[in-house]
């Protein structure tokens, strides 16, 4: 099957085989297209952002044609829910892939993230204890999902690394006042999450997506991004706070020199790290278990169990 996850910052493709619930990657790739650039301000996709996204989709269409998967699903998340020119986006995807994108709700996004994140937990060197609080920090939204074998409560909140950067962290480096404003927004979203999800029941925190994995890479002292080293790692609250504080005081040029840093995350990693830092501070959970398996894997698994 082929699964595409189109978020606010990146668009990712997974072509995989699943046998006896084991998922084997055939192709796993990502392009940071910043589809949600300025959506928080304008309420629509820019022409440049659509062009970048469609170029990436053209490449993905070639890979899909090459591997001939039996099932294909294209899922679009936060930014695509918020825009006025969604029709142009939908038409462009359909023209290139022959299928319409599924612009899913925040609730479904949370469920798919949980499914993808928890399928591989038994393979971790230090398996987390249930119930799990899964957090998926994206470009436009952050999902909070509580559950064990399946989600029992979830919410999607409108804080993410792109949205918080564009709204608040606009200086290089950001000012104390800008960081305080972003923190207030993030804390308000966490308050909202506490009203919808019994977060206090969580025994473990599992973190997903590029902001979390990049913070983990920096906390581990990696000189380059290493998925195998990052997947299943446990990063303490203290280390997350240290890395976040360092990122927020760096200039863009300084962040660009960090070995594990993808060029498409240089601008937004400070706010993504801040979201993680505030969640850990507010929940009181002492470490985050980092997963490289996320909504993309959840899309693939759900596609097999419910191909219609």
Task: Name the descriptors.
308 residues, alpha/beta, Nucleotidyltransferase, domain 5, 2 domains, six-stranded mixed beta sheet, five-stranded mixed beta sheet, 13 helices, 11 strands, 46% helix
Brief summary:
It contains 13 helices and 11 strands. Helices cover 46% and strands 21% of the residues.
Structural class: alpha/beta
Total beta strand runs: 11
Rough shape?
A: globular
Strand order of the largest sheet: 8-7-6-9-11-10
Q: Output the CATH homologous superfamily of the largest domain.
A: Exopolyphosphatase. Domain 2
Radius of gyration based on Cα positions: 18 Å
SSE ordering: EEEHHEHHEHEEEHHEHHEHHHEH
Q: Terminal Cα separation, in Å?
A: 13 Å
Strand content: 15-25%
Which topology of the largest domain does CATH recognise? Answer: Nucleotidyltransferase, domain 5
- Mean pLDDT score: 92
Write a structural description.
The chain has 308 residues and is of the alpha/beta class. The chain folds into two domains: 2-107, ATPase, nucleotide binding domain (Nucleotidyltransferase, domain 5, 2-Layer Sandwich); 121-290, Nucleotidyltransferase, domain 5, CATH 3.30.420.150. The protein contains 13 helices and eleven strands. The strands form two sheets. Strands 8-7-6-9-11-10 form a six-stranded mixed β-sheet, sandwiched between helices. A five-stranded mixed β-sheet has the order 3-2-1-4-5, sandwiched between helices. A hairpin with a 4-residue loop joins strand 6 and strand 7. Helix 5 crosses helix 13 (295-305), helix 6 (161-167) crosses helix 12 and helix 10 packs antiparallel against helix 12 (269-283). The longest helix has 21 residues, at 47-67. The protein starts with a strand and ends with a helix. The mean pLDDT is 92.
């Amino acid at each position: 099957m082929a699964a595409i996850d189109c978020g606010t910052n990146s668009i990712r493709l997974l072509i995989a085989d699943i046998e006896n619930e084991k998922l084997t990657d055939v192709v796993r790739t990502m392009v940071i297209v910043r589809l949600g650039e300025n959506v928080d301000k304008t309420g629509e996709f820019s022409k440049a952002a659509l062009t970048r996204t469609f170029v990436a989709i053209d490449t993905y269409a070639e890979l899909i044609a090459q591997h001939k998967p039996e099932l294909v699903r294209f899922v679009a998340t936060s930014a695509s829910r918020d825009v006025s020119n969604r029709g142009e986006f939908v038409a462009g995807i359909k023209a290139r892939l022959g299928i319409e994108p599924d612009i899913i709700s925040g609730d479904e996004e949370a469920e798919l993230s949980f499914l993808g994140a928890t399928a591989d937990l038994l393979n971790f060197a230090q398996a987390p204890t249930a119930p799990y609080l899964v957090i998926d920090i994206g470009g436009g939204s952050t999902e909070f999902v509580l559950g064990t074998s399946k989600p029992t409560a979830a919410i999607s909140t409108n804080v993410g690394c792109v949205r918080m950067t564009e709204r608040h962290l606009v200086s290089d480096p950001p000012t104390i006042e800008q960081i305080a404003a972003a923190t207030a927004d993030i804390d308000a979203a966490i308050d909202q999450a506490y009203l919808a999800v019994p977060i206090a029941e969580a025994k473990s925190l599992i973190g997903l997506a590029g902001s979390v994995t990049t913070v983990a890479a920096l906390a581990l002292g990696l000189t380059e991004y290493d998925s195998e080293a990052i997947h299943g790692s446990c990063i303490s609250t203290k280390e997350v706070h240290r890395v976040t504080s360092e990122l927020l005081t760096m200039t863009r040029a300084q962040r660009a020199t960090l070995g594990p840093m993808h060029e498409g995350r240089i601008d937004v990693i400070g706010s993504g790290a801040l979201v993680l830092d505030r969640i850990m501070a507010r929940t009181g959970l002492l470490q985050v278990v980092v997963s490289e398996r996320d909504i993309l894997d959840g899309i693939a698994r759900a596609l097999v169990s419910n191909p219609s």
